[in-house]
Amino acid sequence: MTGKRVWVAGHRGMVGAAVVRRLAEENCVVLTAGRAEVDLRRQAATESWMAAQQPDAVIVAAATVGGIYANDTRPAEFLYDNLMIEANIIGAAHQLGVVKLLFLGSSCIYPRMAPQPITEDALLTGPLEPTNEWYAVAKIAGIKMCQAYRRQYGCDFISAQPTNLYGPGDNFSLSQSHVIPALMAKAHNAKIAGAKSLEVWGTGTPKREFLYVDDLADALVFLLKNYSGSVQLNVGTGVDISIADLARLVCSVVGFEGELVFDASKPDGTPRKLLDVSRLNTLGWRAETELADGLRTTYAWFCDHYREARL
């Protein structure tokens, strides 16, 4: 990557920021652009900016994201925004002759009841999880776009599908966040308020896999250097945990000692979602951060950025 111009689309998000941090270790030029400079949902604006900057490689981390509540209440936004962002970037990358593009998907692309652990071959073999199907459909379209441009034009466009992510820079808004930041913010507020109990959405029985965001950033740089293929590669730890046990671990890290109350009237989502990461492991990459360690680092960041994180 020496001397290459690498554009991180979505550099202000949790993933994009982690990728920028990781690329600082490489001898490359990192390109970034905020929404005020270019709205990636607009084709002309995206093409104009990319033509001016001439990136050699692109990491597509830009996306409209959120947890179960956000996905369920904003389906049109999740579908439209993500389709436009990926179509504009991938199409322009082909037109401008970008040498390498890495599209970032999500493990929610896989069927709700896919055999566990989920292999890459499970894509499009069954119905999606209804609570996030709009986001999943958009991400599947992005994967297929990369495959289509590779097949028709020989573009070296690849895709990576991370498991559930967490870490510094996450969205801790209770109406939009994923499970770890939501639990962390609720546990923190409950501790400060001296509450005796904490409500957790769902039954607590679903199991989830979690990857520290800086581990993902390292994996993406690894793939840019070492992978060129049409198959979307899973990125994860290969280990999962029940939501109930996760809630207990988060409370332990935060220091909240009250009772957990599970609200079974709220949706559980997919019963289990564990990725098979054997293909990536075979290439030579493995996640390094243990969940408890990553949670402690994330909580320290949350406390240091409390007002910002709450927004």
From TrEMBL:
Q: A Gene Ontology biological process annotation?
A: 'de novo' GDP-L-fucose biosynthetic process
Superkingdom, taxonomy of origin: Bacteria
Q: Does the keyword Transmembrane apply?
A: no
Sites marked Important for catalytic activity: 106, 108
Record-linked CDD domains: GDP_FS_SDR_e (cd05239)
Q: Which residues form the NAD-dependent epimerase/dehydratase domain?
A: 7-236
Supply the enzyme class, top level: oxidoreductase
Manganese in keyword set: no
One example of the protein's molecular function in GO is: NADP+ binding
Residues that bind substrate:
186, 201, 208, 268
Q: Supply the HAMAP family for this chain.
A: GDP_fucose_synth
User: Which family does this protein fall into?
Assistant: Belongs to the NAD(P)-dependent epimerase/dehydratase family. Fucose synthase subfamily.
* Protein name, UniProt field: GDP-L-fucose synthase
Natural source organism: Defluviicoccus vanus
- This protein's encoding gene: fcl
